[in-house]
From TrEMBL:
<feature type="domain" description="Glycosyl hydrolase family 13 catalytic">
    <location>
        <begin position="13"/>
        <end position="418"/>
    </location>
</feature>
<protein>
    <submittedName>
        <fullName>Alpha-glucosidase</fullName>
    </submittedName>
</protein>
<dbReference type="GO" id="GO:0009313">
    <property type="term" value="P:oligosaccharide catabolic process"/>
</dbReference>
<dbReference type="InterPro" id="IPR017853">
    <property type="entry name" value="GH"/>
</dbReference>
<dbReference type="GO" id="GO:0004556">
    <property type="term" value="F:alpha-amylase activity"/>
</dbReference>
<dbReference type="Pfam" id="PF00128">
    <property type="entry name" value="Alpha-amylase"/>
</dbReference>
<keyword id="KW-0326">Glycosidase</keyword>
<dbReference type="InterPro" id="IPR006047">
    <property type="entry name" value="GH13_cat_dom"/>
</dbReference>
<dbReference type="InterPro" id="IPR045857">
    <property type="entry name" value="O16G_dom_2"/>
</dbReference>
<keyword id="KW-0378">Hydrolase</keyword>
<comment type="similarity">
    <text>Belongs to the glycosyl hydrolase 13 family.</text>
</comment>
Amino acid sequence: MKKKWWHDKIAYQIYPKSFLDTNGDGIGDLRGVITKLDYLKELGIDIIWLSPIYQSPFVDQGYDISDYYNIGEEFGTMKDFDELLAETKKRDMYVVMDLVVNHCSDKHEWFQKALKDPYGKYAGYFHFVKGKDGRVPNNWRSYFGGSVWEPVPGTDMYYLHFFAKEQPDLNWENQELRQEIYKMINWWLEKGIAGFRIDAIINIKKDLRFPSFEPDGPDGLASCIKMVEEVGGVGDYFEDIKRNTFAKYDAFTVAEVFNMKEDELTEFIGDDGHFSTMFDFSAHTLMQGEKGWYENKTFDFKGWRDTIFASQLQLQKVGFAANIIENHDEPRGASRFLPEHARNEAGKKMLATTSLLLYGIPFIYQGQEIGMTNCRREDISEYDDISTKDQYREALVAGCTKERAMEVCFENSRDNARTPMQWSSGRNAGFTEGEPWLALNSNYREINVEEQAGRSDSLLSYYKALTALKKHPEYKETLTYGRFAPDYEENGDVFAFHRISEAGQDVFVAANYGKEPQTLMLAGGCEKVLLSNMGKETVKKEETDCSGCLTLDSCEAAVLLLR
């Protein structure tokens, strides 16, 4: 494997709107990020990924961009951004921006010009397609529900949108459009950012025949995912992007990719792949139901663990993964990937241990380091997320009661990750002096940074210990490039694996997700306890066996250096 500058880094995703508000308007801003850079540095963070901060009408929380070259006034100014960039560089940190180029906002200048001249140059930047017999071109369903087609006023054409109707899809077949996008990407890289997290990029290739598919729901529509899975040639676009932009700057790129074909992994993230890395969503997709959130599966520890193990074994043959517990589009990991008995501070430390030390680059989402949880709402009107409202309606149509539909939202809503960051137990959790744009999780009085910063045994302190271990000079090579080898797979309560360096250093990570104590035999014995979520410094020895053993109580995790 070619060694890259980002391989040994730890990344942190900031959802700026909910991070920290400094001007009292209830919306987080760039100055809030600047004031917390030292906090992030102490946490062990190297790379900061900012969710979209561009100008946007915020139909889909900034993923509908109306101007790629300007900062949204809610977040501040370009001067603020330049200061943020300068301050991160002082701390040897990197900034990664969100790149959203499958679609833009319907308020973008390109789309507005296309509407004014539906047969002109800018119409070619989008998919303006004639209807069939006075109806939409086909029966595709958008990711947010309903048809992917919206009428182009004054014509017999429709425009394509895989997401909200206010997010028209860009036409990547148009070479002039591609050059405009490349110019914009290079502009940001010239400014000094380190790279991009690339949103929904698998969707940019369209089957221009726009065929209909067999309906997969009572609405008579078929998910647009069907087209994404069947169409070929998207890799050609990715290589074109890389050649014209990323490769020129040694940029770090992490792709959000679903529905990738099985044989494409090397092309995507191999040594000469399209991207530096891509998020491993295998554990998240495992939970998904076929028709909607109301069919999502409940957490099954063994199935979840085995899915992660299989993914790790596959990925390490090819390249680096980007490992997540949660992000802005997922519910909180502490509420999703822990059994009921483990939804406590020890359990959250255990989850962190078995995630951050996997093979690949770890991404921590804001609030994860203090164990923020899902947030219960009483009525659907209290949710902001467009996808949650759609899934609530889907649940009701499917026959769920209002109570069940609300429970489905509590378990799965994207708003769970978007509630304001909990800095303190004071007014509005220290997030804002004004009215928060989204109501806080009521548990901020118990779960917050201020309380945990004052405790050496807190989850926040444990995250700092984990990142310090990952960067420790004696173990950094092993915990960066060491081979991943699962262990104790026959035990349905244990999550255990080795990271083994080429020189033979063996770091053993083990956690007990069950209710009863588990004893693991250690062939060769333990040389040193590197980290324990329960503060243990030694490993019990079997009097009759010099190889030794490790006994883990419920919710206990340990990291050992083996002989």
